Amino acid sequence: MSRSAAEIHREALSLLPPGMMWSRSPDTLLAAVLEPLAGLLADLEASAEAMMDEVDPRSAVACLEDFERVLGPDPCGRDLATLSLPQRQQLAHQRWTARGGQSPQYFIDLAAARGVAITIEEVHPSQAGVLCMDDELVEPPEQFIWRVLIPLGTWDDFRVDESAMDDRLYDFQPSDVECDIMRAAPAHTSVVFTYLPVDEEE
Questions:
Q1: CA separation for the pair 38, 166 (Å, rounded)
Q2: Cα separation values, 92 from 14, 70, 186, Å
Q3: Cβ atoms 96, 115 nearer than 8 A
Q4: According to DSSP H, which parts of 51-80 are helical?
């Protein structure tokens, strides 16, 4: 924990040798000489403490560009200049910690690292003796198709009193986590994305 300039100044005075020549009074010339040095040490300690946040992309600000430089260009072609600071931090952290995986939980965690809560639906080929009356028939190779359910997010409807002439009747922005999932999906699988209104996510 960093110290304030006043704390460093008091400690420096307390460490002076004993004797009349080395007065510990804050009103002496020696105390005045030590005061700016205490300020410099306080700034140094504060900077060192702040660097603790820079070792994690999720909290890095000063070193975020260094993380992005080491990671290289975004594989999905996202323009980092158009992203907010929290979005850049999430993206850098997701890329920095990615280890790969094929389980549904891996893709759920991958999206969660980008701040998107998804669920995944898988199907299995129908089998006699296991299939129930209301179950959907699934034939090969349908088992290689899996569906990702994503919150819809922002949806804009055309409104007569508010929208302009060139506005679309409806518009929404797909989540850029689609690219991350498609790139990591096993080659033999097909991913289908379904956007759900917030009240239908469950």
A1: 63
A2: 46, 10, 23
A3: no
A4: 64-71
